[in-house]
Write a structure and sequence with these properties.
Structural class: alpha/beta
Shape: globular
Radius of gyration: 21 Å
CATH superfamily: P-loop containing nucleotide triphosphate hydrolases
Helix content: 25-40%
CATH topology: Rossmann fold
Largest sheet: 6 strands, mixed
CATH class: Alpha Beta
Length: 271
Amino acid sequence: MNEAITVRGVQKSFTDLHVLRGVDFTVERGSIFALLGSNGAGKTTLVRILSTLSRADAGGATVNGFDVAARPLDVRRSISLTGQFAAVDEILTGRENLVLVGKLRHLPDPGAAADALLARFRLTDAAARRAGTYSGGMRRRLDIAMSLVGDPEVIYLDEPTTGLDPEARIEVWNVVKELADSGRTVLLTTQYLDEAEHLADRIAILHEGRIIANGTLEELKQLLPAATVEYVEKQPTLEEIFLSLVGPSTGSGTQGSVAEPVEAPHREDAA
């Protein structure tokens, strides 16, 4: 079976508020599927249903071949969920957070699993530090590492870069790409268009409780009129300027060397 997630006609209301109005989509195994929508579109509600934390009023869904309503325990064994805010224990060290989750998952050697994940997410040097001292990007990497304890096949990332600075966002993007490259299926919810554009194999746009578009980036571009050719002066984005000045992230929580000031490029009048 090539489909890791199937959603068919899912509806959900809270009293008079209709949050989901018949949502349909499928997610192929080993792919990154971005669910794009503004705040209040119903993204988190849908993730809660797919995580068995909430029940749909109508319709149904399967995850890894298991019906989310009829076989919730099998679904939970197949998934991990990383919410909008890091769920790490700030008093514990990074390693202790991972070992704790390993024990809760009843792993035979939680320490070895913790060490492997620390190395994979470039946190070994900070393993003995309290998580409360981590930067935002490190904390988010630890949070995702904790969700991978037990080797789940399907990963839900619910707006994982909310509140992160540009460097930390790129760190998380790299982690998401690595997860998909390792064969995991990633369902990513986001309100950032550039995030979906950079990461996703397919993108679905959720608006007012319905999927109004679903396809690859190229397929979605074809929904608009053909592009016209214009000659414009290429200017660097603010993100490119920022990363050029601060240098690449070391991934260890320490700042890199201070970049030398650069002179703004001379602008010539366009022809």
